[in-house]
């Protein structure tokens, strides 16, 4: 896992701009604390920061196809889990390898297949290839968009980076926000492509971009399809167990300490159990995987259920760890740590965005910091709810009949920070237009019923939009601590199979995630297997709420914050007694605080 950046331009000689590529690369040091390097050619500059995970001595980047007069230069972030199989295939085609890193497999795969190499890769990745012979830049992002990749136009070409902050170190790219950017940030629709920053775009998940003298060309090499499904229930359960197991086992390779995130829900428990079993097979019956959960000092006494949370996680995580046989630890956080301005600023800097989820982001950042003291790689259960239909909106008649994105029925305007009405952003119109476009992208089959197609729409929206912000959150906050997080449920073969599976099979027992539960018999305690969906925990301590209100009052002392925020709708949240502050109103205050930190650190040019 690493950070990548650089640019290609046909109007300027990049060899004279070493300080620029070095500055861009330096902004990504938290993503790659172990090493860094740059490569300069006439038409391209490539930078890299490395978090060493596989082949600690051999995977130095930027990597070239030969040490003298290279024709291919690669800057790569992520993990290709089938690199052993690809290495064998490429050797059979005559390629000679100097290292055992998956980075070199990507390099040689480009030499063999060109831009079609993306079809051969299994894993999470974002990379850039500069081809000296063809004078061509290739950007590629993994199928689900686990790893980020941003780009912006420069004179005669484009610049790219793992994070926008690296782009802003280029003299031609400014941190500018216009009305479109505010709509993208605060609509909570999670478009892929445009960002909060004017002129900065993302390479689409499952997409690639080519720059040459003819201009820029983008295409998708992978997307969800409504394929034919012929398996019965028993076969589907076995297939799911095989696919989840294969994904978990393939992602266990590392030359550094590895652990699992264990929340006490079915997704993380099943994943941890599979990893623990595989580790014992490889290293012997005494081998134990480390597992981690997060909790707050007030939860045991003051847990309060809300729209997203039905119970306290820690007892379930402890029971699951004992059942599986892990070395389990619970990182307990104090509300004061969540209020620390330096911690909150670090989160906003990592995100490059004013939009987050407040204390849940800060706690995740602090959790990753504690984990990084012992492990460099963690595996997480992200995406299981999207893949198997775990969210309430899959089972709610209100959500199924609503003409809007289903999560807005939970978050909506009550959770989003209200923006100043004088900005006239026409947010409702923007949401409606975006929703229509999102539904138009959903594949369908001629033989499916309207009810079946509606469930397919819900899953497509969840996988292509809701999951996007979860993966962004997990990537940014983990990489800010120099921790690589892998997400086996994002394996594209598992996603493809589950997306093609009829809804009746996904919910055959009348509950959420029926297929995963049936496939997981024996892997988790019964209490965990049948536990209702529970979201990431949040503190309920009145002292946290009181401190948050104080931070929000300070934030509103800024003229820029007041110009963007609707004070009239925020004031009731400030006047509510701390022990009665509802979740949605608290999140509104969180976003006021984050907005102030974002404006102070990034100092964007506001163009409205």
UniProtKB/TrEMBL annotation:
GO molecular function, one term: ATP binding
Keywords: Amino-acid biosynthesis, Asparagine biosynthesis, ATP-binding, Glutamine amidotransferase, Nucleotide-binding
Keyword Aminoacyl-tRNA synthetase: no
Enzyme Commission designation: 6.3.5.4
Keyword Protease found: no
Active site feature: 2
Domain Glutamine amidotransferase type-2 positions: 2-214
Annotated catalysed reactions: L-aspartate + L-glutamine + ATP + H2O = L-asparagine + L-glutamate + AMP + diphosphate + H(+)
Recorded metabolic or biological pathway in which this protein acts: Amino-acid biosynthesis; L-asparagine biosynthesis; L-asparagine from L-aspartate (L-Gln route): step 1/1
Entries under InterPro entries matching the protein: Asn_synth_AEB, Asn_synthase, ASN_synthetase/amidase, AsnB_N, GATase_2_dom, Ntn_hydrolases_N, Rossmann-like_a/b/a_fold
Binding site for ATP: 261, 294, 380-381
Pfam families recorded: Asn_synthase, GATase_7
Site entry (Important for beta-aspartyl-AMP intermediate formation), positions: 382
Group of enzyme by EC: ligase
Top-level taxon of the source organism: Bacteria
GO biological process, one term: asparagine biosynthetic process
GO cellular component: cytosol
Sequence positions that bind L-glutamine: 102
Sequence similarity: Belongs to the asparagine synthetase family.
Protein name in the entry: asparagine synthase (glutamine-hydrolyzing)
Species assigned in the record: Streptomyces chattanoogensis
